[in-house]
């Protein structure tokens, strides 16, 4: 009960270990990379949600793939961060004072590779013992973010890339 009281009184919730990963599969190549260092805030009162991550923090199974991702495609030295700033659009359907799993919809602007585009996604928000766990999944393309894929390797990268987001928020004290 005390944890729920603290959650209802908290201004913002925060995580510094958000897990964001992407997956691409073609007959020629399977690509998966994980970033477990996404920083995010969630304001239960307004539904405002912000994510920020360092692009170089994505980890691949193969070092060469990670090197190509950072140097050739994402240009991580030039564009080091990816961000999302948006709102939960169905905030009235979520009760941050009561444990449970709620369907959540977010809309906002994502910036990757110096390109900012509107993004909407659906997922779940679980209120559990004073924490909030967010899970979402959406599809995107390299083209959406002005990332050029050379024709030599374009058959190795899926046209649509699945992005998954998991974040465990605690009160910011």
Q: How would you describe this structure to a colleague?
A:
It contains 2 helices and 9 strands. It is elongated, with a radius of gyration of 17 Å. The protein has one domain: Lipocalin (Beta Barrel). The protein starts with a helix and ends with a strand. An 8-stranded antiparallel beta barrel has the order 1-2-3-5-6-7-8-9. The longest helix has 11 residues. The N terminus is likely disordered. With 173 residues, it is mainly beta.
CATH class: Mainly Beta
Q: Look at the structure and name the CATH superfamily.
A: Lipid/polyisoprenoid-binding, YceI-like
Helix content: 10-25%
What would you call the structural class?
A: mainly beta
Q: What do we call the CATH topology? A: Lipocalin
Q: Shape, please? A: elongated
Q: Spans with pLDDT under 50 lasting ≥5 residues?
A: 1-10
Q: Give me the number of helical elements.
A: 2
Question: Which strand order spans the largest sheet, edge to edge or round the barrel?
Answer: 1-2-3-5-6-7-8-9
What is the rounded distance between the termini?
Answer: 18 Å
Largest sheet: 8 strands, antiparallel, barrel
Number of domains: 1
Instruction: Compute the CA-based radius of gyration.
Output: 17 Å
CATH architectural name: Beta Barrel
The average pLDDT is 91
Sketch the topology as an H/E string, one letter per element: HEEEEHEEEEE
Counting DSSP E segments of at least 2 residues, the number of strands comes to: 9
| Proportion of strand residues | over 45%
């Amino acid at each position: 009960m005390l944890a729920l009281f603290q959650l209802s009184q908290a201004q913002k919730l925060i995580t510094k270990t958000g897990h964001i990963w992407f997956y691409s599969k073609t007959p020629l190549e399977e690509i998966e990379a994980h970033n477990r260092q996404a920083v995010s805030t969630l304001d239960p009162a307004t539904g405002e949600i912000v994510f920020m991550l360092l692009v170089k923090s994505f980890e691949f199974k193969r070092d060469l793939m990670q090197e190509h991702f950072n140097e050739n495609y994402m240009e991580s030295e030039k564009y080091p961060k990816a961000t999302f700033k948006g709102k939960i659009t169905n905030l009235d359907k979520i009760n941050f004072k009561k444990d449970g799993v709620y369907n959540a919809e977010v809309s906002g602007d994502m910036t990757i590779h110096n390109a900012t585009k509107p993004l909407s996604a659906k997922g779940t928000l679980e209120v559990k013992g004073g924490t909030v766990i967010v899970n979402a999944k959406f599809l995107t393309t390299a083209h959406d973010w002005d990332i050029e894929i050379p024709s030599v390797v374009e058959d190795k990268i899926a046209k649509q890339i699945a992005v998954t987001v998991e974040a465990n928020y605690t009160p910011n004290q």
